[in-house]
């Protein structure tokens, strides 16, 4: 997850003031704050069956989630190589579904991926709402019945965000008691879920009025204190 630029924060529509979001001192890891209440989840039970760790042959790690049996979504910036100014080759990326402490249910190779139109890795702040990569895999990694529906991000709605953060990369770890704080004018979803580097690409889950959890967005940016921004998931 990247740290949110100030210009994104001041665009918030909602009840928070800029000072309330930005006043906290910088943390060792952005997005966690001093009152992070994250926990380990059971990645072999709903709704986390869609969760996987996206890895590259160069040692990079992010989080991703299944949107179809053999299709994953992650943050596009996870696949960008600043040193070469190119995206990683598809054959150098793979997915470990249900990863925890070196064990996983399924390993799948990425055959090709599609970067969302409009995303520019050299202008991350300006194109963050399109920070999305769709990964096509060489095999099915989830059953159709385990997929989650899409959901709208409503202000005040209960939310959850779990991934493979830098400080707990070996387990599915995250915040299961957070909420949607508002929407930015550039369509980013602001949440107060504790998430940081490594959580990029995690699904932002929102509880719908009928009680069912659905996917509202893809976590892409962190604020200075607890919380961050998710790119909306087209549906």
Automatic annotation (TrEMBL):
What are the recorded GO MF terms, alphabetically? serine-type endopeptidase activity
Q: Which InterPro entries match?
A: Glutamyl_endopeptidase (IPR050966), Peptidase_S1_PA (IPR009003), Peptidase_S1_PA_chymotrypsin (IPR043504), Peptidase_S1B (IPR008256), Trypsin_dom (IPR001254), TRYPSIN_HIS (IPR018114), TRYPSIN_SER (IPR033116)
Presence of keyword Signal: yes
**Which GO terms of type biological process are on file?**
proteolysis
**Keywords for the protein's UniProt record, in alphabetical order:** Hydrolase, Protease, Serine protease, Signal
Q: Tell me where in this chain the Peptidase S1 domain is found.
A: 12-235
Enzyme class, UniProt record, top EC level:
hydrolase
Name the Enzyme Commission number(s) assigned to this protein: 3.4.21.-
Family note: Belongs to the peptidase S1B family.
Q: PANTHER family of this UniProt entry?
A: SERINE PROTEASE (PTHR15462)
Protein's name according to its UniProt entry: Serine protease
Q: Which organism is it from?
A: Gluconobacter kanchanaburiensis NBRC 103587
């Amino acid at each position: 997850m990247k740290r949110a630029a100030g210009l994104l924060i001041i665009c918030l529509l909602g009840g928070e003031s800029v000072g309330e979001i930005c006043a906290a001192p910088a943390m060792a890891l952005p997005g966690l704050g001093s009152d992070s209440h994250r926990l380990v989840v059971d990645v072999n039970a709903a709704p986390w069956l869609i969760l996987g760790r996206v890895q590259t042959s160069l040692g990079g790690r992010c989080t991703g989630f299944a949107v179809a049996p053999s299709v994953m979504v992650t943050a596009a910036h996870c696949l960008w190589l600043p040193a070469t100014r190119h995206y990683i080759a598809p054959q150098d990326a793979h997915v470990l579904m249900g990863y925890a402490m070196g064990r996983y249910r399924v390993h799948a190779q990425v055959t090709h991926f599609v970067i969302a139109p409009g995303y520019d890795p050299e202008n991350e702040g300006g194109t963050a709402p399109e920070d999305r990569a769709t990964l096509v895999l060489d095999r099915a990694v989830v059953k159709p019945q385990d997929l989650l529906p899409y959901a709208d991000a409503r202000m005040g709605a209960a939310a959850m965000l779990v991934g493979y953060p830098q400080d707990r990369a070996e387990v599915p770890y995250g915040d299961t008691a957070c909420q949607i704080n508002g929407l930015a004018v550039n369509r980013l979803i602001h949440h107060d879920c504790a998430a940081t580097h490594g959580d990029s690409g995690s699904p932002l889950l929102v509880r719908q009025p009928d009680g069912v959890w659905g996917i509202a967005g893809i976590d892409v940016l962190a604020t200075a204190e607890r919380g961050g921004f998710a790119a909306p998931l087209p549906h």
